[in-house]
Design brief:
single chain; alpha+beta; 7 helices; 4 strands
């Protein structure tokens, strides 16, 4: 989300079934709205399958939505319904966002996007993610999930002479 050329990148490691992740969405919207053109958001899958049995299927559904050009629409629907992510409901949400249902069902049955989710999970281990949601601003871990912390980190990253990092 946001301008792909933005100087600041927020990376979010998240789980679609996590209530804390869902409740962070308004904060992320506030941050993006406060810095139009300066901040972009990158979503990374981190399904906590041991406590959220529907998180991985939801991640697969989102990955297929991305393939069909509707990731953020599906992302929003998944978080709006984070406590109701049964397989049947995932199909209903896919219909609501206008996905090609033949492609969607095939991707879900074959776990076509398993590799993309596994790649995000491997990256999460590499950068030390322990739980969800976890955020990084230009590669620096956000230690407190509030607007003032994001603002301080973004302002620091926007200072002249600060090279962008990923």
């Amino acid at each position: 989300r946001g301008d792909s050329k933005a100087a600041v990148t927020i990376v979010e490691f998240s789980d679609f079934q996590c209530p804390y992740c869902a409740s962070s969405e308004p904060l992320l919207k506030q941050v993006l709205d406060a810095y139009p053109g300066k901040v972009k958001l990158v979503y990374k899958h981190f399904p906590l399958v041991s406590i959220h049995p529907n998180a991985r299927p939801a991640a697969l559904a989102a990955a297929e939505a991305m393939q069909q050009g509707k990731f953020w629409e599906m992302h929003d629907k998944l978080f709006q319904n984070y406590s109701q992510l049964s397989r049947e409901n995932l199909s209903n949400l896919a219909k609501q966002v206008g996905l090609d249902m033949v492609k969607f069902e095939k991707a879900m049955q074959t776990e076509a996007h398993k590799g993309a989710i596994d790649k995000d999970m491997a990256e999460s281990q590499r950068v030390g993610v322990r739980g969800t949601p976890s955020f990084f601003v230009n590669g620096r871990k956000v230690m407190s999930r509030d607007f003032d912390t994001f603002k301080r980190m973004i302002e620091e990253a926007l200072k002249p002479g600060k090279p962008p990092t990923g």
